[in-house]
């Protein structure tokens, strides 16, 4: 019945029996279910690991089943969160693959047949984005990684965003959580939300992205300051992958006005992302870029997590986080 939640049939049988007979001890449970004492103990260990058991109020040495409305709901929420993360991983991989194919087609000079346009230089990229924004009919969706946005970028976007909202265009923008700590970017995001745009934030973003009317997308190939390059893609396959990626991230993102909730372990989404990146072996500089924060902030968060875990190294912190269920092994790349 509950195998999808990670509960095997034997553990499920013990849990259901305990709900019917909360006072039953290990021996009684074994007799009722036809199980050995060892099998019952293994099932109890599984239930304790999944937080489906609690100490009795009357006798702290005795274990009682957690109300299924609470316990199973918590397990279901965890599974849904894991599924959402796996879905995002799939969409990111699909988008990365399709962009690679687009870039290769462009390099082979197949821009006309492949629906890929190459843009070189910041002025050229900004001009093309301005054209697309002015021609947008009903929806513009974007990822804005990098944390705090530059004053020039915010100023360039203000008139375009105001004009789009006035024309009835739905604006959906995803920033990094770290923009909540940058006054200028936060003020802009709030202004956009008050204007009628929809603004959400996440701990990390896979790439910079603009999708216009779900007909055309702009993605970077190179973010180098001296020679920025972007692709404009219009083919159905590429757009389908990019739209799916945006939708997946959008569903997991928190509206700007809401507080970022902490999970059962007391971790904020940003702290959880740092643990994952530490477990993958990333440097402080790389983590800072992914989260859009300073290296100093990254080191402060990492040091706090190591202290809470009692870890002596970054690698050990990642391993302990997996062992204690703070993050899942499948989260690590």
Automatic annotation (TrEMBL):
GO terms for molecular function: DNA binding. CDD domains: LuxR_C_like. Residues 260-325 form the HTH luxR-type domain. It comes from the Bacteria. InterPro entries: Sig_transdc_resp-reg_C-effctor, TrmB-like, Tscrpt_reg_LuxR_C, WH-like_DNA-bd_sf. One of its GO terms (biological process) is regulation of DNA-templated transcription. Coiled coil: none annotated. Pfam families: GerE. This is Regulatory protein, luxR family. It comes from Micromonospora mirobrigensis. The lineage of its organism: Bacteria, Bacillati, Actinomycetota, Actinomycetes, Micromonosporales.
């Amino acid at each position: 019945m509950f195998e999808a939640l990670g509960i095997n049939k034997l553990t499920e049988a013990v849990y259901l029996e305990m709900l019917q007979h909360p006072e039953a001890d290990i021996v009684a449970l074994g007799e009722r279910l036809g199980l050995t004492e060892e099998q019952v103990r293994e099932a109890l260990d599984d239930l304790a690991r999944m937080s489906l058991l609690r100490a009795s109020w009357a006798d702290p040495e005795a274990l009682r089943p957690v109300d299924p409305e609470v316990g199973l709901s918590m397990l279901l929420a965890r599974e849904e969160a894991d599924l959402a993360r796996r879905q995002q991983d799939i969409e990111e991989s699909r988008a990365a693959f399709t962009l690679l194919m687009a870039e290769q087609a462009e390099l082979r000079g197949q821009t006309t047949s492949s629906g890929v346009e190459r843009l070189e230089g910041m002025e050229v990229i900004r001009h093309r984005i301005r054209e697309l924004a002015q021609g947008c009919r009903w929806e513009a969706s974007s990822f804005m990684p990098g944390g705090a946005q530059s004053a020039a970028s915010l100023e360039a976007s203000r008139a375009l965003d105001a004009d789009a909202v006035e024309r009835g265009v739905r604006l959906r923008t995803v920033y990094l959580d770290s923009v909540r700590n940058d006054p200028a970017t936060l003020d802009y995001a709030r202004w956009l939300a008050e204007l009628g745009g929809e603004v959400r934030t996440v701990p990390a973003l896979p790439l910079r992205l603009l999708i216009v009317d779900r007909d055309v997308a702009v993605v970077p190939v190179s973010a180098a300051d001296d020679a920025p390059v972007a692709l404009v893609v219009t083919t159905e396959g590429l757009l389908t992958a990019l739209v799916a990626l945006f939708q997946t991230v959008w569903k997991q993102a928190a509206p700007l006005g809401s507080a970022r909730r902490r999970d059962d372990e007391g971790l904020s989404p940003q702290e959880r992302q740092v643990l994952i990146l530490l477990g993958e072996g990333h440097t402080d500089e790389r983590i800072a870029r992914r989260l859009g924060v300073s290296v100093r902030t990254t080191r402060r968060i990492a040091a706090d997590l190591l202290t809470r875990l009692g870890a002596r190294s970054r690698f050990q912190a990642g391993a302990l986080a997996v062992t204690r269920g703070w993050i899942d092994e499948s989260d690590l790349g």
